Amino acid sequence: MIYEKVDLNSEFPGLPFGGRPAVLEVFCRSQLSDSANAKFPAMIVCPGGGYWGTAAHEGEPVALSMLGKGIQGFVLWYTVPDGSWPQYHLELAAAVLWVRRNADRLGVDGNAISVLGFSAGCHLAASFAVNWGDRLFYETLGAEREELRVNGMVLCYGVLMSEGKFAHEGSMRNLLKDKRTPELLEKLSVEKNITEETPPAFIWHTADDEAVPVENSLAVAAAMSAAKRPFELHVYPSGSHGLSLSTWVIRSPEDRKNAAENIARWFEDCAGWVLRTFGYQS
After folding, report:
1. Which residues partner with 75 through β-bridges?
2. Most buried by CB count within 10 Å: which residue of 181, 224, 241, 269?
3. pTM of this prediction?
4. Neighbours of 272 (CB within 10 A)
C-alpha cells in the first residue's frame, strides 16, 4: 500500500494558510507486478464536523474501506476552524489538483476522481463539485480549469442547503463568519447550482435525522432530476446523524451495540455505483 501525508500548502504556495497546513492523507493500492500500470477510481473524503472540526471516524476508516473495493482513497484534513469561505474550498480544489497531477504515480484514473463528504464535509464536497469550474479556484492555484473537474460526488447525510427552514445554521455560520451575503448564500446552496457540468451523484440520508434534515438530500436529488443529471438516492427510515460506515468498527466499545448495521449497506451500494459509473463494472 502507498501511504503518504501531503502538505498541500507546500505543494501549492498560492493556497491560503490558516495557521497550519491543509493535509491530504493518501491510501492507495501499490502497483503490483500483475497489475502494472493499472488505473483505479479515486475518492477524496471530507469528514464532517460543522465546519468547526473534522470527525476522525469519517476519515481513515472510509478511505481504507474504499481501498478494499478497488477505489484509491484519500482524506482531506481541511483547516477548520481557522479559516472561512473560500479557504476550505480552495483546499479541496488543491486536493483534486494534486491527485490528478499524481495520477500516474498512484495508479489513479484521472477521469474518475470523485469527492465524498459527511454532514458539513458533504457541504464542502458538494458545493465545490457544483462550482469546480469557478475562476477563483483555478486562478488561485495556477491550474487549468479542467484540472479541477470533479467526476463524481458522494453525499452522506449532507448539509446541502445554505438557508431556509432546513439549513444547518451552525455550519453556515462557521463557514461564512463575517462574509455572509445573499449572493454567497445562493452560491453555496447546492440544490440551486446544479448544471450540465455537475457530476453524477450518490446520495444517502436517514429520514429522521434530527441534526440535518433529510430535505437537504431530497432537494439536491430533485434538482439533479430536473437537470437530467445522473444520481442514485437512498433514504433509510431511521438512524442517527454522523453514522459514517454505520458498522461496529467505527464505534467505541461501549457504543458498538448501537451500530445501525442495516444502514451499513450504503457503502456496498456506493462502491458499486462508483465502479459502474466509471466503467469498472457493468
Report:
1. 25, 45
2. 224
3. 0.95
4. 15
